Amino acid sequence: MKRDFILYLVLILFLGACGAKNTNVQTVQSGDTYEYLSRQFKLQITQKDNLKLYSVSSKWFGTPYKIGGNTKKGIDCSGFAGVMYKDVYKKSLNRSSADIFKKNITKTPRSELSEGDLVFFRTDKGDKNTPNHVGIYLKEGKFVHASTSKGVMVNSLDEAYYKKTWVSGGKVK
After folding, report:
1. Which of 16, 27, 60, 67 is most buried by its number of CB atoms within 10 A?
2. Please, are residues 166 and 133 in contact by the beta-carbon 8 Å criterion?
3. Catalytic site residue 77?
4. Residue 145 bears catalytic tag
């Protein structure tokens, strides 16, 4: 009887502990943590941030650039934006940077960008008002994108190259 009571008590304590939250390190998808994501992005990721955006995009880091690609074997910038928007926000985007810019967004000044907005650039000598590159704004001037040189990565809008090639930002409709 006494043994049954002790087992019952241990069982209750164990089950109660399973539902307890660890307030120091909170788990998001697939075992990612705020601390882990903060290190990955070199940003302070908090409960106020869209954890799914950070968690899902971090799993694409290092995926090589492949024009027309949309898999982990290779992806281009508009493919990456499209995959991310479908997975994180359940929204579909057009396939090219120019079409996303024309049809899927409401232009937003750089100073008013918020997490999840799209950022657009013209990286070649075409019409400087028609973007050929897109990324997803994170915060603190950083954005995630599929670069032609290093694949999926994070850069800063304050880098000289991105200042020079900036077209606009936009909120997805």
Report:
1. 60
2. no
3. yes
4. yes
